[in-house]
Amino acid sequence: MDKIDAAARHTPVLLQRCLDLLAPAFEVDAPVMVDSTLGMGGHTEGVLRAFPHVRVVGLDRDPQALELAGRRLAPFGDRFTGVHAVYDEIRDVLARLGLPAAHGVLMDLGVSSLQLDEAERGFAYAQDAPLDMRMDPTTGRTAADVLNTYDERDLVRILRAYGEERFAPRIARSIVAARAKAPLARTGELVDLVRASIPAAARKTGGHPAKRTFQALRIEVNAELEVLERALPESIEALAVGGRIVVEAYQSLEDRLVKRALAAGATSSAPPGLPVEPETHAPYLRLVTRGAEEADEAELARNPRSASVRLRAAERVRPTPDHLLPRTPGRRAA
Question: Mainly localized where (predicted)?
Fold first, then answer.
């Protein structure tokens, strides 16, 4: 594992487009970018090479990713700082480092190349492995815990909500029946169970039959949507005026949250029909992408994992009005 070359294993998605979108935010003295989902460091390396005056703080909940990225980025010295943290902690991390704000925030959401490629992590349905799926393998419940302890109704709920799985009741019923004989422990068991639960005609389309179940479990295990829902306003508040946030999402549930958060900041909060918009209700973000951008043919040929990416970006144009500041538990509004 210590000989893994992170650069050889990881091609960052839409790297040049991300650099182009972030560039205007770095036209200041001593700019700081937060790579909220460091992974194996591909996007951060691109930023550090393209902008020699930028410092990057890289966050990741996965200690293995931090180690690999740290080795990859060691040549950049103190221009890079890796931090073991979840990205909804962005403002706390900046405060601990004595940094007042970020000029760029980059989020590359979902499961990382490292997590998919390491069979023993249990993220991939194509390889038999322990049912883990934790992005931070040092803490929290595993996929096996979810499968063996959730009641049938909750299993249906997460399969429907997070996997958009139309055969959720059948799969949940099969899980409960199987675990009554012996606890589920391996991804291969789950794949066989899901395949047997989906009618043969439905298995002919839509890709691997276990794809949606694995997505749902991963999201539940890592509380991905709850964390993202907190992280988006926290990241916007971390931005200096003139700073930019760039987010790459890979499934509709994530992209919906991103779209909603950026659109809210780019829309007046004044009641409709007022003859003059009060300054406190003016938008505090400006959208810098038209809708969600997708990978073009050249990007797809270079990096097949870009097939489902949806990229959105916005620029902070003013401080957030007091009445719209995020109310984070344990944090006083700034």
Answer: cytoplasm
